[in-house]
Amino acid sequence: MFRVFERDFAGESPLYQRLSGLLAERTDLATPLLSAPHGQRRALLLFAAVQQILRVREPGHRLAEWYPSLGGTRSPRDPALLPAFADLVHQHQAEITEWCRSRTTQTNEVRRAALLRPALGFAADLVPGPLALIELGCSAGLLLVPDRYAFRYYNADRSVTYGTGYEVDCEARGAAWPAAASLPIVVGSRIGIDLAPVRPSDTDGVNWLRSCIWPEHLDRVARLDAAIEVVAEAAPPMIAGNFVDELAPVLDAVPPDQVPCVFTSHALAYLRSSERGALLRLWDAVGRTRDLIVIVNENPIVGLHAFAPDAVADDDLKTPVTAVVWRDGQPTVTVLAHGGPHGNYLIYGPWQYAYDPPLLRSEAATD
Question: What's the pLDDT at 363?
Fold first, then answer.
């Protein structure tokens, strides 16, 4: 696992790339991860727990000297890094273990709203009535308030801003412009579901969100803090619970004059396959009885290919933003864009695919 993350961090976080390589040889320092649920035993969770200790308990510990997010400037290649990391883990093993046991990685990046916005506009243009936004894995709710952001899309030749409010910028790559982001959305209601939703007033929770950000990404910390202020003013309701358990009653409570719009952003990968299957069955059942929108900003395996397995996968296009829209009981699948995992760029489509979920197909054959 650490070897995989060593590759994934390349070019993005020199510190975490180096730590991943070191801990692949010193797995004794990763034992706090064993307290986490199996699907959460990832390098990111351990590193977030360590950064949280540095933020709230030991800001003067020498390990902070390697964290740009904490003012550090030392090189990850400095051989003193591993002893410093080991010292902090040994001193605070019980606390790090508890953070790993009780928390999940909650990388709530507001720029991802710029990837979702074209899909929201596209879907809202197809269905009547205001949208009832329902986010699965809402964390602090930064993506629940797209109507309170201004979205600036830019490339070498042009820059266009849609909406008003706190500005979220995103590079538009490729030949097509994200025109659907200009289509209006009317929000009738909004609610988030998360195992541990973070309120703006929760100091430890907001610090945890900062700790989940990679230490070199100082601009992301600044965006997080600015977006937290927007969410504090909007105060969207958020409930604690499992997606599968909580979504059905939330959908039942959506008024008839609103169209449910369920969306996820890098959340489905943390679910077991049986849980993703339960969500898919629920969406399909609800979509056959009322208009429904599902938007997934996920890797193709748990996102696009769960609905359209024959969609062409390009290794360079890792995050297809997929809108599945049921109108009058009939589903359509449209990829509005492919984007960077943290929303820094998008490649606009759209691309249409046939709705043919493998799970539902296999269940029908069994019946």
Answer: 61
Mean pLDDT computed over 92-115: 91
Gyration radius (Cα) of the chain, Å: 21
Helix axes 81-91, 93-102, angle to 10 degrees: 80
DSSP string, 148-201: GEEEEEE-SS-EEEESSSEEEEEEEESSS--GGGGS---EEEEEEEESS---TT
Q: What is the pLDDT of residues 171-215, one digit of tens each?
A: 999 999 999 999 999 999 999 999 889 999 999 899 999 999 999
194 token code pair: 């998360």
Query: How many other C-beta atoms lie within 10 A of the C-beta of residue 134?
Result: 25
Phi, psi dihedral angles at 305 (to 5 degrees) = -75, -15
Domain termination residue (choose one: 79, 102, 125): 102
Q: Residue 65 belongs to what domain range?
A: 2-102
User: pLDDT at residue 259 above 80?
Assistant: yes
Residues 255 and 337 in one domain: yes
**Nearest C-alpha neighbor of 104 from the set 231, 27, 205, 255:** 205
Q: How many domains does the chain have?
A: 2
| pLDDT exceeds 60 at position 364 | no
Residues 225 and 284 occupy one common structural domain: yes
Question: Torsions phi, psi of 260, nearest 5?
Answer: -60, 135
Q: Which residue, 301, 302, 300, is CA-closest to 351?
A: 300
pTM of the model: 0.86
Three-state secondary structure readout of 84-121: HHHHHHHHCHHHHHHHHHHCCCCCCCCCHHHHHHHHHH
159 and 10 in one domain?
no
Q: What is the CA 123 to chain-centroid distance, rounded?
A: 20
Q: What are φ and ψ of residue 150, in 5° steps?
A: -100, 135
Picking from 48-52, 69-73, 272-276, which range would have the lowest pLDDT averaged per residue? 272-276
Please give the angle made by the CA atoms of 58, 59 and 60, to the nearest 5 degrees: 90
| Secondary structure of residue 75 in the 3-state scheme | coil
